[in-house]
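Amino Acid Chain and Its Fold in Token Form
===========================================
Scope: a single protein chain, as residues and as a discrete description of its fold.
Amino acid sequence: labelled as such and written in the usual single-letter residue code.
Position: the record begins directly beneath this header, with no further notes in between.
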Amino acid sequence: MNAIQFLKEQGVEKARELLARLHKLGCPDDMQITVINGMWHRTTNGFTYPDLKRLVESVDLVKSYGGVINAQHEIKYLDLDWDYDSPRVVRLKQAIADYESIYGGEHV
């Protein structure tokens, strides 16, 4: 199971709970995990804490703009201002791509 699949199946709140649990336990960033029957396990082909954290932050960022459409409009606006390669634009583009990979671009 990868981080996107976990979010699709379990949702953002479960992802937040898992992140909090992993952080509290001090799990290393490179430790790969998977979730089976609601329990997390170490694995060689799972996802990492940073993978899941980035996706949760991406969902939050897109929602802070009011959804995908508004976030996309913000990118167009920033591109018009010649700000197309700023860290803000790069991160927002990544957040939109992450969001669409989880929700298909239609979730608000």
In short: The chain has a mean pLDDT of 89.
